[in-house]
């Protein structure tokens, strides 16, 4: 799930030539007053990756176009990794050492074998499969499986920072081009949490972002696209006015502000103009 710098520059050049690229804030304002959003485009980034600052931000400045980045507040300024990256790191280590699925914890090994997944043939397929099967487990089961996995291959300690820090956040915000929203504290799947914990993930993330940036935080993106009606109620109570899903589609005057659709763009489906057009148009 990445886009190369060259592809991203091509995307921005094309979008700026054919659309009115506006901020998420302006989109909400237009919808509120019934102003048209035809041929408008909003750029958003989830999680708060450091490469947003290193690679995307210079291109956005070059073209003078706005974007919104949704921050996983508890990870910003730390060397913590999301658990899918930890899975990838561990399985890559298995592959490099010439080991087989037999060295993996039982909670993972059994299910992979049942699905006919072979580490020896495809590391990518194996990684994707492990990530998906762990998403389906309860938070407690997932934590236990990750503990077993990291104990088997050692705790990550390479000191590599993958997420933004707050100085980078403030620098981007100071440009006037980048808005910041919430993506929870810990990128938790909100529909799997008890109400109190889900509310804490939502409310604490907003408080941290507002404290660190000095700006009101009113936009939200659902981690992994997981949410329920209860989640929407929590957002309303916390003061969020707009939330983005992972549901594919276009925003229209009839769209619900706390369930806006998006079109996800990755390198494999957007590395040329025809592919990008197909991604934007095809349903």
Verbal overview:
The protein is mainly alpha-helical. The chain has 2 domains: 5-78 and 163-281, Glycoside hydrolase/deacetylase (TIM Barrel, Alpha-Beta Barrel), CATH 3.20.20.370; 83-153, no CATH class. It has helices at residues 5-18, 24-33, 50-63, 83-96, 106-114, 123-135, 139-153, 166-174, 195-213, 229-238, 273-281, and strands at residues 20-21, 40-41, 44-47, 67-71, 178-182, 219-221, 242-248, 260-262. The strands form 3 sheets. A 3-stranded parallel β-sheet has the order 3-4-5. The chain has a 3-stranded parallel β-sheet with strand order 6-7-8, with no helix packed on it. A two-stranded parallel ribbon has the order 1-2. Helix 1 packs parallel to helix 3. The two termini are 20 Å apart. It is found in: Secreted. Residues 39-283 form the NodB homology domain. This is Polysaccharide deacetylase family protein.
List keywords for this structure.
single chain; 283 residues; mainly alpha; TIM Barrel; 2 domains; three-stranded parallel sheet; globular
In short:
The protein is 48% helix and 11% strand.
Strand-helix topology:
Elements: H1 5-18, E1 20-21, H2 24-33, E2 40-41, E3 44-47, H3 50-63, E4 67-71, H4 83-96, H5 106-114, H6 123-135, H7 139-153, H8 166-174, E5 178-182, H9 195-213, E6 219-221, H10 229-238, E7 242-248, E8 260-262, H11 273-281
Parallel strand pairs: 1-2, 3-4, 4-5, 6-7, 7-8
């Amino acid at each position: 799930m990445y886009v190369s710098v060259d592809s991203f520059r091509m995307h921005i050049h094309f979008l700026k030539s054919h659309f009115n690229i506006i901020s998420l804030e302006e989109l909400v304002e237009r919808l509120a007053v019934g102003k048209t959003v035809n041929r408008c485009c909003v750029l958003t980034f989830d999680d708060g990756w450091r490469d947003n600052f290193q690679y995307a931000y210079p291109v956005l400045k070059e073209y003078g176009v706005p974007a919104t980045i949704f921050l996983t507040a508890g990870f910003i300024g730390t060397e913590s990794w999301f658990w899918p990256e930890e899975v990838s790191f561990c399985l890559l280590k298995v592959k490099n050492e010439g080991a087989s699925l037999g060295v993996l914890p039982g909670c993972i090994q059994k299910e992979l074998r049942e699905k006919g997944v072979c580490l020896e043939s495809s590391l990518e397929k194996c990684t994707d499969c492990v990530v998906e099967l762990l998403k389906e487990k309860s938070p407690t089961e997932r934590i236990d499986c990750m503990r077993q996995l990291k104990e088997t291959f050692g705790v990550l300690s390479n000191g590599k920072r993958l997420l933004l820090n707050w100085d980078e956040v403030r620098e981007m915000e100071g440009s006037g081009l980048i808005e910041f929203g919430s993506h929870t504290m810990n990128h938790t799947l909100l529909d799997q949490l008890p109400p109190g914990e889900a509310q804490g993930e939502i409310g604490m993330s907003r408080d941290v972002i507002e404290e660190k940036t000095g700006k009101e935080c009113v936009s939200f993106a659902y981690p992994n696209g997981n949410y329920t009606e209860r989640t929407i109620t929590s957002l309303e109570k916390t003061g969020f006015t707009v939330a983005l899903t992972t549901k594919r589609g276009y925003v229209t005057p009839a769209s619900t502000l706390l369930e806006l659709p998006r079109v996800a763009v990755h390198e494999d489906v957007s590395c040329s103009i025809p592919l990008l057009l197909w991604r934007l148009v095809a349903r």
